[in-house]
Each structure stands twice: as C-alpha cells, then as structure tokens.
Amino acid sequence: MEAKEIRKPKMVIKRDAFLEKGYNLMSKNTIDTVSMQEVADASGYGVATLYRYFGAKPVLVVAIARWKWMEYAQINQKSRKNKKFDNMTAAQIYEFFLDSFLELYKSHKDLLRFNQNFNIYIQSESIGSEVIKPYTDVIEKLAENFRIINQKAKKDGTMRTDVSGQEIFSTSLHIMLAAVTRYAVGLVYRPQKGFDPVKELMTLKEMLMDRYSIKK
Question: What are 99-158's pLDDT values in tens digits?
Fold first, then answer.
C-alpha cells in the first residue's frame, strides 16, 4: 500500500512561495531594488497577501535569511552523519566547521551572494535588533558547537584553551565567511594563470588551524 502524500497547509504553501521567490530575486539583485510587489508577482499571490504574512519588507528579508541558513544547517548536518562529534577531537570538530565554509563556496554560491546583499541591506536600512533577532538566533546555534569544542579541548588538548570559544568562533566565522563571499561574488584579484580559489581558501583554513589547534 502506497504511503499517502502529506500535503502542506495552504498557509505554509503561500509562506514557502514568498520565501523561495523572494530569495531567488534577492540573491540575484541588491535587496533594496527588489520590491514587495515583485516578490508577490513572482509568487503568484497578491501583494496584500504578502503583507499579511510579513508586515514589512525588513521582516520578509530577515525571514528569508533565517529560512535559508536553517536549510543549509540541515544539509550540513546530514553531511556529517557518519561523523559523530562525541567520537571526534576538538580539533577535528573545528576542522569540520572550517570545511563547511569551503562547501558553501563550492556548492552554495547563491546563498553567499544573498548573504552579501543581506548584510548591505541590514546596515543601510538600520534594521533594529528585534527585527533581526530570528536571524541572529540561528547564528547563535552555530556558536554552540564552539562550546563543545572548548569543553573537549580542556580534556584532549587539541585546541587552545587560553582563547575563549566565543573568540575563536567569532574570528573564524568572520574571516571564513568574508573570504568565501568575496570569492563567490568575484571581489578578488584573478591572475590570468594559476588562479585556484579552492586552493587559496584551503590555505586560509590551514592558517586558522595552525593558529588555534595544537599538534601533538
């Protein structure tokens, strides 16, 4: 007997359409140039319906960012299904975190382009902390991995413990995300010969590993 197809409620279908079409438009264009009317038209629903779901454009933009990063987090989680953190050293978990940025560059350049547009929009529009909180909550969940790293490091000695896990997380996140974003949007020097972006990003990863991990 075939399993019955689970149908999404209409409200979820509409919300997903707004998020998906909004993301498609905002990853290809600067967010300030994308209107709510354009998102509604692309979704196949009226703009009044869009405003009922998301009361203002900043709310929609933050919702899209949260949705897309959570989606990537789930993909990333599946990629380590055979890598249980319980059986890994602190340095191995840290390396997995850094490798996640390389995977972002290789397979999710659209997300990096959107993230670039998102950061510019948030700054230019002076979006308040309450509006952006759903997005920052997702980032905070990533920081939890560094609490695990710090706890393991105190036992296995494979990572520095004279530097806080929060500092390592913040530094690594900003350096790696800034680098892969610049490569994804093309804001890098491209010599005519010998240009290998993945190799260059690997060098950056190795520099961070050398700074924070302890070789035995």
Answer: 999 999 999 999 999 999 999 999 999 898 999 999 999 888 888 878 889 999 999 999
Cα torsion angle, 124, 129, 132, 136, sign: positive
Domains of the chain: 7-55 (1.10.10), 61-212 (1.10.357.10)
pTM (two decimals): 0.89
Contact 105, 176 (CB under 8 A): no
85-111: pLDDT as tens digits: 888 999 999 999 999 999 999 999 999
- Which amino acid belongs to residue 199? K
Alpha-carbon distance of 144 to 156, in angstroms, equals 19
Return d(Cα 100, Cα 117) in angstroms, integer. Answer: 21
Task: Give first-to-last CA distance, the chain, whole Å.
Answer: 57
